Amino acid sequence: MLPALLLPTTLLIALWAGPLVLAGDASFGKSCNPDHQKLQEGTYQFQTDCDAMTFCAANATCAHRGCRSDEFPFGYPQNAKLPPKCDKGFFCPDEQDQCQPVLAVGSPCQFNRDDECEGPPNFKELADTSGLGLNVNGSVCLNNICMWANVTVGLPCVVQNTAYTAYGPDGEFIDIVSRGNCRVGLYCDAQQLVCVQTKAIGENCDADKECATYNCLDSGVCGARTDTPRQVGKWVYVVVGVCIFGGMVGTLVGLYFIHRKDRMQEREKRLQYWREQNAFRQNIMQMQETARNSLMSFGTPGGSPRSTVYGRDQVQSEDSQVPMLHAASKSSALRYYVSDDGSQIDDRSDEDLMMRRRDPPQGPPGDRF
Ligand SMILES: *[C@@H]1O[C@H](CO)[C@@H](O)[C@H](O)[C@H]1NC(C)=O
Ligand SMILES: *[C@@H]1O[C@H](CO)[C@@H](O)[C@H](O)[C@H]1NC(C)=O
Ligand SMILES: *[C@@H]1O[C@H](CO)[C@@H](O)[C@H](O)[C@H]1NC(C)=O
Question: Is the CB–ligand 2 distance for residue 118 below 6 Å?
Fold first, then answer.
């Protein structure tokens, strides 16, 4: 679309990109050149030598701004005292030096600053309430002149075409925006320069302005407004819900199986441990039996007091946890196992154990270690 317009604009941008002055770093009180104030080509952003909180005053120094255009202006530190927003009937110019009363129809205005122009008497009828920004309170600033957006179908209109540099995934491209002073629901045809009825969704179009929705698709038909909320079908909610629920259940089931495996391993270990303990207990009992038999066969019928103590000790030891150490060192991997009653089994040598075993008990078996 509009290749004739596209070429010179690209050229212009290429030429302009060279002597680009980095504007906006002079702080309050520093000198500036008022002639440097201009709109940046391509983006049409206002440029000045002064920083975001100051403007270039007529005496060529940066002075504090006297008004702001935005609710949350850019470049101010947190909790800074902001200049006021202008009241109804006033506007804050691009320089943001001070509030000025709105301009009468036909007066010069700053680029695209529809809000600088005074509304028409029938502003309620002419104002654009669609949110597309076609006019402000029924006024438009076209080619830097305040006008009312009041032209009806078939009557001559004023058009302003602006080429913006836009940035997309494929790099820079030119976006041409065409504005006119037709009433809402009409657009200013660039060739015939008369107001034409806008087109409904699905009709053929060449530019956004031709569509009532202000969205001419690449396919050349009017599409829905770009700010239309995307509606998804009920089935999407169902699928998402099922996926969430399925994910939760799947996680639970997966964890169950993982933990079951661990549990089985742990149980197997305990079982092994128990078997070892049992075998060890049998051994001890056998040893005890052998010892008793050998004592008996060696002499002193009736037994000495020492052997009674020894026997009692052995009987108690069967219930104690002492034998565990011996068995634990074999294969159950529970060497430093902490038993249920909280007592920790330590790793003593067999000799040590045997030596201690010959001592008479000092207290309950469990307290000895
Ligand atoms: C320049 O003008 C501004 C605003 O008009 C004023 O506040 C400031 O004092 C002036 N500076 C000098 C150096 O005259
Ligand atoms: C719109 O313009 C009319 C006429 O100038 C004015 O009385 C009214 O206050 C304006 N409304 C707004 C919201 O600026
Ligand atoms: C339409 O607006 C223009 C200014 O843009 C004004 O001169 C003219 O009188 C208005 N026409 C009507 C019918 O209101």
Answer: yes
